[in-house]
Amino acid sequence: MLYSHFVYILTNVRKTVLYIGVTNDVQRRISQHYFDSQNNKKSFAGKYNCYYLVYYEGFENAQSAIDREKEIKRWRREKKNKLISKFNPNWEFLNNEVF
């Protein structure tokens, strides 16, 4: 199944900060977060150097992705960690595996 929208979770190199976002192009968004972290640091992800992908989830439409993003953002860190660990047990950086 092809998905048009994604919820994604980024972290910093030490895995101490999580950033949750929604996009229709994961690679482009990671590049934007990386650029911001190396330059003006205006966004949360840029300020905390969150550009390492550890989780993503695909959706057929934007509203479903937005709803899921909002749901995950409300969770405590422990629950977010469990979600990531179930999907990516070693918390490997998946930047090179996205489409």
TrEMBL record:
Domain GIY-YIG: 3-82
A Pfam family recorded for this sequence: GIY-YIG
Top-rank lineage group of the source organism: Bacteria
Record-linked InterPro entries: GIY-YIG_endonuc, GIY-YIG_endonuc_sf, UPF0213_domain
PANTHER family, sorted: BSL5627 PROTEIN, UPF0213 PROTEIN YHBQ
Family of this protein: Belongs to the UPF0213 family.
Name of protein: GIY-YIG nuclease family protein
